[in-house]
Amino acid sequence: MKNEIREVISTNDSPTPIGTYSPGIKTDNLIFTSGQIAINPETGEMVQDDFASEIRQAMDNLKAIIEAGGSSMNKIVKITVYLTDLKNYDILNRVFSVYFTDELPARSAVEVSALPKGANVEIEAIALVEK
User: Fold this and answer.
1) Which of 13, 87, 114, 121 suits a disulfide with 64, CB 3.0-4.6 Å?
2) What is the domain-level CATH number for residue 23?
């Protein structure tokens, strides 16, 4: 039987976890990120200028974790987005169109009643490991 590889991913370029979880887990061929909210990793403060800024910070946090795991944004195969208000769905699509242009990942967007630290959006991803 093949030994399974399970490696914790962490980087100073993403926020310190605010709970009992790892920022990301790398297996033989996949990276799983924990949900990322708009915490600026340099200040530890929430970015709440506007909804688009929150999405960009959460995506930058995801990018840092995925890259620390040896992959890249274009290797994301699935994204799950949690929103406190689905009325922001069009803004989500506009911001995502900057991050994803060619082969789009599969995506789910779910409205939830609340998110940690009063965030309006939380995003998690699954990516292929670069070979």
Assistant:
1) 13
2) 3.30.1330.40
In a domain, 66, yes or no: yes
Distance CA 59, CA 63 (A): 6
Which pLDDT does position 12 carry in this prediction? Answer: 94
pTM over 0.85: yes
Cβ pair 71, 64 in contact under 8 A: no
Would you say residue 38 lies in a domain? yes
The pLDDT, as a whole number, for residue 5 is: 84
Asked if the structure places residue 2 within a domain, the reply is: no
CA angle 17, 107, 63 (to 5 degrees): 40
pLDDT attached to residue 128 = 97
What would the DSSP string read from start to end of 4-40? Answer: PP-EEE--TTSPPPSSSS-SEEE-SSEEEEPPB-SB-
* C-alpha to C-alpha distance for 125 and 79, rounded to whole angstroms: 4
pLDDT lower than 70: segments of the chain: 1-3
